[in-house]
Amino acid sequence: MAQTPNLLIKNCKPVGDGFTGSKTMDIRIKNGIIDEISDSLSKSGDEEVFDAQEAYVSGGWMDMHVHFREPGFEHKETIESGCRAASFGGFTEVACMPNTQPPIHTRDVVEYIKKRSEKEAVEVHPIGCVTKERKGDSIAEMSDMKDGGAVAFSDDGDPVSSARVMRVALEYSSMLGMPIINHEEDLELSRPGHMNEGTVSTRLGIEGTPGIAEETMIARDILLAGFTGGHIHVAHISTRKAVDLVRRAKAEGIHVTTEVCTHHFDLTDEEIDRRHFDTNVKMHPPLRTRDDVEAMIEGLQDGTIDVICTDHAPHAIEEKEVEFIYAPNGITGLETAWSVTVKRLLEPGKMELTSILEKLVKNPRTILNLSVPVLKHDEPANLTLFNTHEEWIYSEKEVRSKSKNSPYLGEMMKGRAVAIYNKGQFVENILREQ
């Protein structure tokens, strides 16, 4: 991607960091640094000019839960294609999960990912494994991975099933000041479920995964975090009782944070019936009930849920085009996250724009101990330009990911990311002809 160190963004509406988004202004960037935020700035020297046409601009968004598949599964996604999907969705930074081959369980793999992403406008932060080879037996080399650039630890795709191992992991990671992100699933209760266990799974005759499989593991990890003083981050929360557990733990002062995927505050298990077993609505945790969806929104509203994420999980077409019970779990989400958020949170008045942006800009970085971008003079320019009204169709032509396993393909979207600026690079997200 071409470097754009000097850029004048005209007619944008800054929001956050004291800006309300109500006033159209200009932003001048010099050598990748915000030089001015003011009214009616004029082109200076060799800088490029971009007319934002009254798009909002905020600090760059971050998705702290993605799967970029490299190394090992490049037929699904690569770091390059994942970054394309991220920038199209408005994300300037992501944290990638370690269920690769080899897993991100040693410093050399962490540094490989950092090196492979250097040229991209999107900053990629590797999440190291909790245990060696993600086998759940012995703790990986956490300190060494931190020195190489890891920002957290997780065996995502698999839970840390052993309470003994999780206790040691929390004690050790707390000394490093880093969170453990657990895939909250009691395998004794969840397998071999293929969707949410409930009335829909009974009607369809598919073995289900009950919510208690998630809730039991969350309860255990909350207790261990309280006991050790460590920081547990609950990945992709999905049930009402799970949100209640986190809410009570926060009230007790336990260091627990959590995230919710956009599909978990949008879709329900009824989609599996409605879409006739479309494998692009199969993920884990599975889509839950309408009551669970409402609980996700309530958790976002009251601050129990800290972060909006995607769990972007690309799979090749041939892997998903099988019978429902044989299909792998996971969907792509980076490219549609903002439109789903507009539809479910902003447009119906469930949340204000500034509150939503906290969960996309500030909170994920605070949890991962990363610098939060600021709309301020002399700060590095790390920006997302976006709107909340533009209608567009998420067709296959718009897919930047290497995979197309999305339940939103063909649907009308509202609101999209217009461009990002990060690492001295400006990426304009131009819609292709429908």
From TrEMBL:
Name the source's superkingdom: Bacteria
Annotated substrate binding sites:
H67, F68, R69, N99, H315
GO terms under cellular component: cytoplasm
The record ties this protein, via Gene3D superfamilies, to: Metal-dependent hydrolases, Urease, subunit C, domain 1
Q: Which major enzyme category is it?
A: hydrolase
Residues of the active site are: D311
> Which residues are recorded as binding Zn(2+) 1?
H65, H67, D156, D311
Task: Name the Enzyme Commission number(s) assigned to this protein.
Answer: 3.5.2.3
Record keyword Metal-binding present:
yes
The residues that hold Zn(2+) 2 are D156, H183, H236
Q: Name one GO molecular function term.
A: zinc ion binding
Q: Which reaction does it catalyse?
A: (S)-dihydroorotate + H2O = N-carbamoyl-L-aspartate + H(+)
Cofactor remark: Binds 2 Zn(2+) ions per subunit.
The UniProt keywords, alphabetically, are: Hydrolase, Metal-binding, Pyrimidine biosynthesis, Zinc
SUPFAM superfamilies under this entry?
Answer: Composite domain of metallo-dependent hydrolases, Metallo-dependent hydrolases
| GO BP: any one term | 'de novo' UMP biosynthetic process
CDD domains, alphabetized: DHOase_IIa
Residue ranges occupied by any Dihydroorotase catalytic domain in the UniProt entry: 60-240
Give the pathway listed in the UniProt entry for this protein. Pyrimidine metabolism; UMP biosynthesis via de novo pathway; (S)-dihydroorotate from bicarbonate: step 3/3
User: What cofactor does this protein call for?
Assistant: Zn(2+)
The answer to whether keyword Amino-acid biosynthesis applies is no
**Role description:** Catalyzes the reversible cyclization of carbamoyl aspartate to dihydroorotate.
Q: Which family, according to UniProt?
A: Belongs to the metallo-dependent hydrolases superfamily. DHOase family. Class I DHOase subfamily.
**Name of the protein:** Dihydroorotase
Q: Which gene encodes it?
A: pyrC
